[in-house]
UniProtKB/TrEMBL annotation, chain A:
<dbReference type="GO" id="GO:0005737">
    <property type="term" value="C:cytoplasm"/>
</dbReference>
<dbReference type="InterPro" id="IPR035649">
    <property type="entry name" value="EFG_V"/>
</dbReference>
<dbReference type="InterPro" id="IPR000795">
    <property type="entry name" value="T_Tr_GTP-bd_dom"/>
</dbReference>
<keyword id="KW-0963">Cytoplasm</keyword>
<dbReference type="InterPro" id="IPR035647">
    <property type="entry name" value="EFG_III/V"/>
</dbReference>
<feature type="binding site">
    <location>
        <begin position="136"/>
        <end position="139"/>
    </location>
    <ligand>
        <name>GTP</name>
    </ligand>
</feature>
<keyword id="KW-0175">Coiled coil</keyword>
<dbReference type="InterPro" id="IPR004540">
    <property type="entry name" value="Transl_elong_EFG/EF2"/>
</dbReference>
<dbReference type="InterPro" id="IPR004161">
    <property type="entry name" value="EFTu-like_2"/>
</dbReference>
TrEMBL record, chain B:
<protein>
    <recommendedName>
        <fullName>KaiC-like domain-containing protein</fullName>
    </recommendedName>
</protein>
<dbReference type="InterPro" id="IPR027417">
    <property type="entry name" value="P-loop_NTPase"/>
</dbReference>
């Protein structure tokens, strides 16, 4: 029997750090009977919440890796991806959003919309993910869900409306009023599992009635039937209202806001009902794949189990059970024992075991279909690979992957650590495309690079804990780059013919700036002046030269190398000779091509009370920041600026002291820009000094 | 059109405001239209023209987000100047700062405080101020005169405003400046009004203290891009 996709929800839970999303997920798993006891994120029982499966996450109380889990609520199957809240890990958030159909945006009822929520919301908009909002922590001192709903409208530009009213707030928070059914709900029993429906408290009835009416009027914008029913007067069918909310949510024109306290077990079940009622099922969302046989022409995936399989590997994990590959199926079925193709490598892969993941526990399954999120065992692939079956050559559209902006050297403390470190790095680079590693040939040091200090810190910690690889880490360095700004010719002959077997190769052509991409090699040789077998040697030589620039030792990017002439020797020419000729040619032309140093520029948003705006702007200005603008929202302001990463080390301490700890900031990579002359000169001087010292 | 061409042949040259600013005189400019006719697009062109001539512009946007305002600038700059390099684009952007206020938050004292922060800390010294979304209905002559004093204190050469006029309000000044600015039109050196004429959109110069052309001269707007053209 065909699976009813309307009963499937693939959702993400995304939000600001510390807004309680892991606790919320824990409660969802509890109410859907996936777990039978509740553990807190920083709980005293030492167990930790279910979704924070990595030891480190348990210790720091933050979610780093997004674990996928499966739950069922009433007749709905829900696949949940728990996503990290820190901006350094946004590749995880972005990957999750790419494979999900809908999301719950969790906000703290005290902290409200903060900078990270803005980033997450921007990402959700980029992937057109319909969302519902959940204002958590209504039991906390200072809780104000009304204010948070207002911020969703003002700061995130969402048409957000409260669907419920709190009965009491802070320590008095005891239940909620459903503004559609106009009933009061109380959550009773040991863990809030028993819901008691009651009449709305008398003192709230007038307000609830007014808000109910306002909500219906707003929703009538999405439903003609509802509008007609309102105009006619009389009883309104609640299904009409639910349909209008769903329509508004799916079109991203409306964001229903729910309230509760996960920690106090209040408001979770109505949120699950909302996931069912308002978030999309796989067929509500249009996903596209690229046809690799038709020059990557886009086509819509069908969600049909009868069509050939298309499945995206969106996350890899190396756990105690071996390599796990999380996949989302877009069309077709996958069964245990099937053979699939990796469309990037063209390799056949046999699917041995297929599991549904529940944080770090798993459930063996025999097969999966469209819309499913499951994990595969023992499949060798990279994150972002697409799997298909014979007869279809497709890839899911590529994801936006930011360039790493920060790097540091790591040195293993002994030989054992060296071996383990290699294993760990191999794994991490496969799991996370924003984490990269290479060996600096001059110093022999292993360099790791990523999206921020915390990003790299976490990997160093994971090396120690999961791989027993003890390493010492150097100070974080900005990942500078070098590039050329003008075209320059080369004509270089590598010649070593002084007895014994000789070396000979001549390479001529030019280097020029490349607008898009890091490197391009163009072979314009005519007449075989360089024999065909040595063309790849030239390419290899150029690529080697790009590893380290001469200005500050940074990797070179944005170069097109064109060869159009050359010469060879029947006996003395070889692969090595042409590689060395290309290296010599590159060196010759690079200096003439006006090389410059580029530095990563970060988009920084500082948010804090209005009285500190001047101080904040001053601090950013002192850091070579370009203030893009300011947002005045009454008592607080946001300053947006673009600041070189090199100037942002230690900024959190400075900001704290400038603002009495009342302001916070987020930053994300914006672009690479040429460094100012004085900074460039300083970097060159420093690099030359380092070379001398070595 | 490249950058140099644009500076010399920009239709905005007819307003002659730039010359006056160079002579140290201070001016107020006003762009009026009914809602949705493209006042912000005109203000952004005026701002970009000023930035391309090397001036610094502070764009005060009331009720609009930074991102939307920034997108406007990027979009209109691409239309105005073809093939501008990334470097030149950054250089132009460095001459602009956007300050956004929620409608109910904006006040002259707050603006004054923010401007002083910027100028005294040498973060940004604007030559030209754009105030988009100023509430002329709620603020009278005194508020405008205070702003004039402020610009003199802070060394700002030009302030441009946008104002919404309403079809049903037929009040006009002697120079033809419509309500709600009819009673304070003497405070402005330049007043432009956007008016649809059939398929065309005109930018009428109602008032122009230093103009090289007679008042009543019309510029037109390309309806698809809202770029100013000579009629």
């Amino acid at each position: 029997m065909a699976r009813d996709l309307s009963k499937v929800r693939n959702i993400g839970i995304s939000a600001h750090i510390d807004s309680g999303k892991t606790t919320l997920t824990e409660r969802i798993l509890f109410y859907t009977n996936r777990i039978h006891a509740i553990h807190e994120v920083r709980g005293k029982d030492g167990v930790g919440a279910k979704m924070d499966s990595m030891e480190l996450e348990k210790e720091r109380g933050i979610t780093i890796q997004s674990a996928a889990t499966y739950a069922s609520w009433k007749d709905i199957e829900i696949n949940i991806i728990d996503t990290p809240g820190h901006v350094d890990f946004t590749i995880e958030v972005e990957r999750a959003l790419r494979v999900l159909d809908g999301a719950i945006l969790v906000l703290c009822s005290v902290g409200g919309v903060q900078s990270q929520s803005i980033t997450v919301n921007r990402q959700m908009s980029r992937y057109r993910v319909p969302r519902i909002a959940f204002v958590n922590k209504c039991d906390r001192t200072g809780a104000n869900p009304e204010r948070v709903a207002g911020q969703l409208r003002d700061k995130l530009d969402l048409n957000a409306r409260l669907m419920q009213l709190p009965i009491g707030l802070e320590a008095e928070f005891s239940g909620i009023v459903d503004l559609i059914t106009m009933k009061a709900l109380y959550f009773e029993g040991k863990s809030g599992e028993q819901i008691r429906e009651s009449v709305i408290p008398v003192e709230m009835q007038a307000e609830a009635q007014e808000r109910h009416q306002e909500l219906l009027e707003e929703l009538s914008m999405y439903s003609e039937e509802l509008m007609e029913a309102l105009l006619e007067g009389g009883e309104i069918d609640t299904q009409l209202v639910y349909d209008a909310v769903r329509k508004g949510t799916l079109s991203l024109e409306f964001t229903p806001v729910f309230i509760g306290s996960a920690y106090k077990n209040k408001g979770i079940q109505p949120l699950l009902d909302a996931v069912d009622a308002y978030l999309p099922c796989p067929t509500d969302v249009q996903n596209f794949a690229l046809d690799l046989r038709k020059n990557e022409e886009e086509f819509a995936v069908t969600n049909s189990p009868d069509d050939p399989l298309i499945m995206l590997a969106f996350k890899l994990e190396d756990g105690r059970y071996g390599q796990l590959t999380y996949v989302r199926t877009y069309q077709g079925n996958l069964n245990k024992g099937d053979t699939v193709y990796n469309s990037r490598t063209g390799k056949k892969v046999k699917i041995g075991r297929l599991v549904r993941m529940h944080a770090d526990e798993m459930e063996e399954i025999d097969g999966c279909g469209p819309g499913d999120i499951v994990a595969l065992f023992g499949v060798d692939c990279a994150s972002g690979d697409t799997f298909t079956v014979e007869g279809i050559d497709a890839s899911m559209s590529s994801m936006h992957i930011p360039e790493p902006v920060i790097s540091l050297a790591i040195i293993p403390v002994d030989n054992k650590a060296q071996t383990n470190m290699s294993k760990a790095l191999n794994r991490f680079t496969k799991e996370d495309p924003t984490f990269r590693t290479f060996v600096d040939h001059e110093t022999g040091e292993t360099i790791i690079s990523g999206m921020g200090e915390l990003h790299l810190d976490v990997y160093i910690e994971r090396m120690k804990r999961e791989y027993k690889a003890e390493v010492t880490a150097g100070a974080p360095q900005v990942a500078y780059r070098e590039t050329i700004t003008a075209r320059a010719d080369f004509d270089y002959t590598h010649k070593k013919q002084t007895g014994g077997s000789g070396q000979y190769g001549r390479v001529a052509g030019y280097l020029e700036p490349l607008e898009e991409g890091d490197y391009e090699f163009v072979d314009s040789i005519v007449g075989g002046t360089i024999p065909r077998e040595y063309i790849p040697s030239c390419d290899k030589g150029f690529q080697k030269s790009m590893e380290k620039g001469i200005l500050c030792g940074a990797a070179i990017t944005g170069v097109r190398a064109v060869i159009n002439d050359g010469a060879s020797h029947s006996v003395d020419s070889s692969d090595v000779a042409f590689q060395l000729a290309a290296i010599g040619a590159f060196k010759e032309a690079y200096r003439k091509a006006h090389p410059v140093i580029m530095e990563p520029i970060m988009k920084v948003a500082v948010e804090g009370p209005t009285e500190f705006q001047g101080a904040v702007m001053g601090s950013l200005n002192q850091r070579r920041g370009m203030i893009i603008g300011t947002v005045e929202e009454g008592n607080y302001t946001v300053v947006e600026a673009e600041v070189p990463l090199s100037e942002m080390f230690g900024y959190s301490t400075i900001l704290r002291s400038l603002t009495q700890g009342k302001a916070e900031f987020t930053m994300e990579f914006a672009t690479f820009k040429q460094v100012p002359k004085s900074v460039g000169e300083e970097l060159i001087k420093k690099y030359e000094q380092e070379k001398k010292n070595n | 059109m490249d950058r140099e061409d644009l500076i010399t042949s920009n239709p905005l040259r007819v307003l002659g405001l730039d010359n006056k600013a160079e002579e140290g005189r201070q001016s107020l400019g006003l762009v009026m239209a009914r809602a949705g006719l493209g006042k912000t697009a005109i203000l952004v062109q005026i701002a970009l023209d000023s930035m391309l001539r090397g001036n610094r512009v502070l764009h005060v946007s009331i009720g609009e987000s930074i991102e939307k305002t920034r997108d406007r600038y990027d979009e209109i700059l691409s239309l105005m100047v073809e093939g501008l390099s990334e470097e030149a684009r950054t250089e132009v952007a460095r001459r602009r700062m956007i300050m956004t206020f929620k409608e109910n938050v904006f006040s002259r004292p707050m603006l004054e405080e923010r401007l002083k922060d910027l100028i005294q800390q040498e973060i940004f010294q604007p030559d030209c101020l754009i105030i988009d979304g100023y509430d002329f209905d709620g603020n009278g002559r005194q508020a405008m005169e205070d702003l004039k004093v402020l610009m003199a204190d802070l060394g700002i050469a030009v302030i441009w405003f946008s104002a919404v006029c309403h079809r049903e309000d037929e009040r006009v000044s002697a120079d033809g400046v419509p309500a709600p600015c009819h009673a304070i039109d003497d405070l402005f050196e330049v007043v432009l009004v956007i008016k649809p004429h059939g398929d065309h959109i005109h930018l009428d110069i109602l008032k122009c203290a230093y103009c090289q052309v007679e008042p009543g001269t019309t510029l037109t707007l390309d309806p698809s891009t809202m770029l100013i053209k000579k009629a």
